[in-house]
Fold each of these.
Amino acid sequence: MTKGDIINIVAEGTGLTKLETSAVVDGFLATIGYALQTKDSVTIRGFGSFRTVHRNERVSRNPKTGKEMHVPDRIAPVFKASTDLKKLVNKEQSIE
């Protein structure tokens, strides 16, 4: 499913235009991105949480050539699914 598919489904379900729905989805995603950029976490009950973690620098190996490569330290975004989302994916509960 793409962002466009999500916009179409939400627009149909809410009665908003695709343009309005697109603005809402873009704003939602930008807000999550800004929160992560400022090292804040985002929790959506029943869905999951987004946060950032620090990854230390390390030496890695190119699987194609076998040559060692230096990977610098960085901040990585991570997502942890909620128990409700895990159950939904495993068909243990229905969509509410």
Amino acid sequence: MSFFDSFKSLFSGSGESAHPVEPVEYKGYSIAPAPREEEGQYRIAAVISKDDREHQFIRCDLVMSFDECVEVTLYKAKMTIDQQGDAIFS
């Protein structure tokens, strides 16, 4: 797989999780973790929403286990909310 294929798959719908995870409420935001399986690992990904707005939260980090990926995803999403607030929807 080339660099561009990897980059393209990062933003495409392929590799989405087959393991649904319940959304977590945090400071008025909803974080729905959605780790994406890639080559035996899981990419940090979630949908952060508030009211009628949504932000696709995807990071380059790959984690070995699904459960650990959910944990890291929640941590990083909360940190992003703390740092950027509603600016994530811009």
